Amino acid sequence: MNKGTLLYSGKAKSVYATDAADQLWIEFRDDTSAFNGQKLEKLARKGEVNNRFNSQIMTWLAEAGIRTHFIRQISPIDALVHKLTMIPVECVVRNCAAGSLVKRLGLEEGLELNPPVFELFLKNDALGDPMINEDHAIRFGWASEDQLHTMKAQSLRVNEILKGRFAAAGMILVDFKLEFGLYQGELLLGDEFSPDGCRVWDAQTRKKLDKDRFRQGLGDVVESYVEIAQRLGITL
Ligand code: ADP
Ligand code: TMP
Known about the structure:
By secondary structure, the protein is α+β, with helices and mostly antiparallel strands. The chain is built from 6 helices and 14 strands. It folds into 2 domains: about 5-80, Phosphorylase Kinase, domain 1 (2-Layer Sandwich), CATH 3.30.200.20; about 85-220, ATP-grasp fold, B domain (D-amino Acid Aminotransferase, Chain A, domain 1). The protein has helices spanning about 45-65, 100-105, 135-140, 145-170, 210-215, 220-230; strands at about 5-10, 15-20, 25-30, 30-35, 40, 70-75, 80, 85, 90-95, 110-120, 130, 170-185, 185-190, 200. The structure holds adenosine-5'-diphosphate (ADP) and thymidine-5'-phosphate. Thymidine-5'-phosphate binds next to strand 9, helix 2, strand 12 and strand 14.
């Protein structure tokens, strides 16, 4: 498979065409951003760690019956995926209160949410990815009622599949964000699952091991991503 022209350069990944019209080459870069791109840094090895992490998680999800865009890892920092027409709605699942939920509702960080809370955000950097509801998504044409139903069911299923793996490794999967898209009329899980797009705490100490280390200037960002991977048994 050959890398074609650059189609899109996002905040953390670059997307290239390939020889196949329906497949994309995704490069995981070391660029790290927070606060809607206001804080930017290059963190050595992050692209490789996230690509390997994502490849393993996507493989586990596929084995558990989730339909994903992932085809295979091409190199330490590259992956081959099915080209999706992305749905511009981000799906967030929360097992504990953290981040924007704490700010928005004044909850105590760490409050257990069981059953989990499911939220939708519009993928729109210019608007700062605002929270939306199903009515907004349907009314303004971002997703159909059927698609939203499937996205919620798949997101909660992903949570069920992964939560136990993190717990068995002594960690709490606090929350995560997923993106979906359409491939030949079918809704597939797209984008990535990595410590850039989820929150993970040590179960005993509640030490933050995810991108909050970058957001909050706690240091050892990539080292913590490596720790999550190693504890989950992901080979880096
Ligand atoms: P952002 O666009 O938020 O800055 P990234 O740097 O991660 O994010 O860029 C990757 C882009 O590729 C995202 O916009 C994501 O929606 C998109 N994407 C992910 N998977 C696919 C796919 N299979 N097909 C088409 N686009 C995808
Ligand atoms: P939040 O607390 O900032 O709303 O984020 C919830 C989770 O979703 C957290 O793990 C970060 C992730 N997330 C992204 O990765 N990108 C996004 O654009 C959003 C809204 C959330």
